[in-house]
Design brief:
globular, four-stranded antiparallel β-sheet, single chain, Elongation Factor Tu (Ef-tu), domain 3, 20 strands, 1 helix, mainly beta, Jelly Rolls
Length: 285
């Protein structure tokens, strides 16, 4: 997508507690186990703190270069360059005030209670970002764009200061793209007709295609805009459900792996929904 604009919004924080500046919109982190942690929203039950600086790394991914120096000459030559991973850093403070899900939530918190609240929220942030074997989801809503999200792993987290606690959270996304947070579904029938799928971003997005039986194979899933087609050499009985996830990539029938039924000529064509309108056709009989 286009570079994300991070804006500074007016603060509604109690002036009696030095929490620094709020930066940008509400950010929501959901870990692989479903644990949530949010920034900049005191009304959210999983609120943990505020950002004190705009996040870095949301504007663009790193670039992997292919360069060679011209021997005994001036300059160099470039091969193909590729988008690499996207490193992102969040900096902020843990909110020590009562609120959210804590059992300590009440007016006039003592310093001890405030310390317990900070410990609770630091632990929630650590648990929500502990993405080792699966990605966590980071979503937010820019003030001038639709809600967006990226999938990432935590590369480090650090807490400093005594009161209130400051944090620095570093994450990395293996995918250089940022995607819309709202999934759109396009329905239709198997046959010669096409169903239009629209991508409002500026980069290709991998779809999930679901086909319900009965369908006689081979089954062809084609993006007629680009001519790319994925061919699956099997048939579906009544009640069978085929799910092809082009992002993983994987293909299953009734939850079981059927990847070996893909026709590789020379490789399976896992295509994208390109920016703009994409007529999609699923052909079987």
């Amino acid at each position: 997508m286009d570079p994300i604009l991070i804006t500074v919004r007016p603060s509604d924080v109690d002036d009696s507690v030095a929490l620094g500046l709020e930066q940008g919109a509400k950010y929501v982190i959901v870990g692989p186990t479903g644990i949530r942690a949010t920034f900049n929203d005191t009304e959210d039950g999983d609120h943990v703190g505020f950002l004190t600086a705009p996040p870095t790394g949301l504007d663009s991914a790193d670039t992997r270069e292919a360069t060679d120096v011209i021997v005994e000459g001036d300059g160099s030559v470039h091969g193909d360059w590729f988008a690499g991973e996207r490193p992102v850093t969040f900096e902020g403070v843990i909110d020590p005030r009562p609120g959210g899900r804590e059992i300590l939530a009440k007016d006039g918190a003592t310093p001890l209670e405030a310390g317990q609240i900070m410990n609770y929220r630091m632990e929630r942030l650590k648990r929500a970002t502990l993405a080792l074997r699966a990605d966590m989801t980071v979503s937010w809503e820019p003030s001038t764009a639709p809600p967006v999200q990226l999938r990432a792993r935590r590369s480090g987290i650090r807490f400093t200061n005594r009161f209130p606690k400051s944090f620095a959270l570093a994450i990395k996304s293996s995918d250089p793209n940022i995607y819309a947070a709202q999934t759109k579904h396009v329905g239709g029938a198997v046959g010669a007709t096409t169903q239009d799928a629209t991508n409002q971003g500026s980069a290709g997005a991998a779809p999930i295609v679901t086909v319900r039986g009965p369908v006689r194979g081979p089954i062809t899933i084609e993006n007629t805009r680009t001519g790319a087609a994925l061919i699956i050499d099997l048939s579906l009985a009544t009640g069978d459900v085929l799910v092809a996830d082009f992002a993983v990539p994987s293909i299953q029938v009734n939850g079981g792996n059927v990847y070996d039924f893909l026709v590789d000529d020379p490789l399976p064509d896992w295509w994208n929904i390109e920016p703009g309108l994409n007529p999609i056709r699923v052909v079987g009989s």
